[in-house]
Amino acid sequence: MKVLVTGGAGFIGSHVNKLLLNQGHQVTVIDDLSKGHKEIVDLKVDFHQTSLDDQQQLESILTGHDVVIHMASYIEVGESVKKPVEFSQNNIVGTVKLLEAMKNTGVKKIIFSSSACVYGKPAKVPITENDSLGEQENPYGITKVAMEDFCKLYFTLHGFDVTILRYFNPYGPGELHQPETHAIPNFIKSTLAKTPIPLFWKGEQIRDFIYIDDLAAAHVLALSLTGLHIYNVGTEKGSKVIDVVKKIFEIIGYEVPIDDKGERKGDVTTLVASAKKIKQELGWNPQISLDEGLKKTIDFFRSHPSST
Ligand SMILES: NC(=O)c1ccc[n+]([C@@H]2O[C@H](COP(=O)([O-])OP(=O)(O)OC[C@H]3O[C@@H](n4cnc5c(N)ncnc54)[C@H](O)[C@@H]3O)[C@@H](O)[C@H]2O)c1
After folding, report:
1. Nearest to 205 by CA among 268, 257, 261
2. Could you tell me which CATH class the domain 2-170+209-233 is placed in?
3. Phi, psi (5° rounding) for residue 125?
4. Catalytic residue ranges
5. With 90 as the cut, is the pLDDT of residue 267 above it?
6. Directed axis angle between helix 94-105 and helix 139-158, to 10°?
7. DSSP, residue by residue, 236-299
């Protein structure tokens, strides 16, 4: 298939590109490089440095594609609190411009990168796709809910094929966010640099960490879907954050001190996916255990010291 990936110079997009190419698909990337890295985009990709904001340019690039995987977004929660206008403009208006460009060029299939954050503080775990969406405590979360809603609206109004993938906690090699606010890369980088690990809630929160290659596989399986579908993408296994820290110490072979940051407003205690739906309907099954994934991620940061 001819696939256009928005945000394909980002962490997750760069892995999705590789898997698509390996499976024989043709890949076009649009990314404005506001947060991404051109050097992690596979050389076989047709790369365009452009923004979602430029609808005319989007239309000229989109023509002839079969499907869009829409990952372009600002993602940093703390920054969204400081810059709600920029986040709304970039994420929500950017998505609407993309959907309009798709409508105008007859490209009517989209796979959208959503997040477990749309569930807010879940009433129970594991979380299923039928559980209600929760109250959002930051602009980023609101933009993800709105982006989902616009995708659903284009299914209803214009007959688009829409698949929404709600990621739980992705991690893996190549995670180079600036600033990095995600737990695993920060824990690994601090340990390798022999500096204290900043930890909230004494690491008692429970998260469902999903390895990047397993996450990427879900996108490829969704390419052939028609209609409207929503899937959680998580391992169904909850890990305590402090236990992840201990595993990292064990793999690296030494410990560093913990910098106890106390409690943090807005944090959810436990997030674990039910992934029954995607397993049953798409035959998706995560292959990489947390131990194996952590080893691969540590190897990446060891061999890329400039990223730490
Ligand atoms: N990383 C996670 O933990 C996580 C969890 C849940 C959902 N998601 C979603 O997955 C997607 C990808 O996340 P990521 O971790 O790869 O983030 P990332 O920041 O590494 O990648 C996003 C990419 O989008 C690009 N971009 C942003 N705004 C753009 C615009 N207007 N036009 C063109 N390009 C633009 C950036 O330059 C960047 O390369 C996002 O939609 C994010 O909300 C990520």
Report:
1. 268
2. alpha beta
3. -125, 155
4. 140
5. no
6. 20
7. S--EEHHHHHHHHHHHHTS---EEE----TT--SB--B--HHHHHHH-------HHHHHHHHHH
- Percent of the chain with pLDDT strictly greater than 70: 99
Q: Are strands 209-211 and 169-171 parallel, antiparallel or unpaired?
A: parallel
Q: Where are the domains of the chain?
A: 2-170+209-233, 172-207+237-307
Query: Which residues approach ligand 1 with their CB closer than 6 A?
Result: 6-7, 9-13, 30-36, 51-53, 71-75, 90, 94, 113, 115, 167, 170, 177, 182
Asked if 88 and 139 touch (Cβ cutoff 8 Å), the reply is: yes
Average pLDDT of the segment spanning 235-264: 96
Span from the CA of 178 to the centroid of ligand 1 (angstroms): 12
- Section 127-132 average pLDDT: 97
What is the CA(189)–ligand 1 centre distance, in A?
Answer: 21
Q: Report whether pLDDT(103) > 70.
A: yes
* Angle at 197 (CA atoms; ends 215, 211), nearest 5 degrees: 10
Q: Is the dihedral of CA 290, 294, 297, 299 positive or negative?
A: negative
The mean pLDDT value of the chain amounts to 96
Classify domain 172-207+237-307 by CATH architecture: Alpha-Beta Complex (3.90)
Residues counted in the chain: 308
Q: How confident is residue 308, by pLDDT bands cut at 50, 70 and 90?
A: low
- In angstroms, what is the span from residue 101 Cα to ligand 1's centroid? 19
Mutate to test the pocket of ligand 1, among 18, 33, 35 (most ligand atoms within 8 A of CB): 35
- With the most atoms of ligand 1 within 8 angstroms of its CB, the residue from 18, 19, 31 to mutate is 31
SS3 163: strand
Q: Which atom of ligand 1 is nearest to the CA of 116?
A: 6
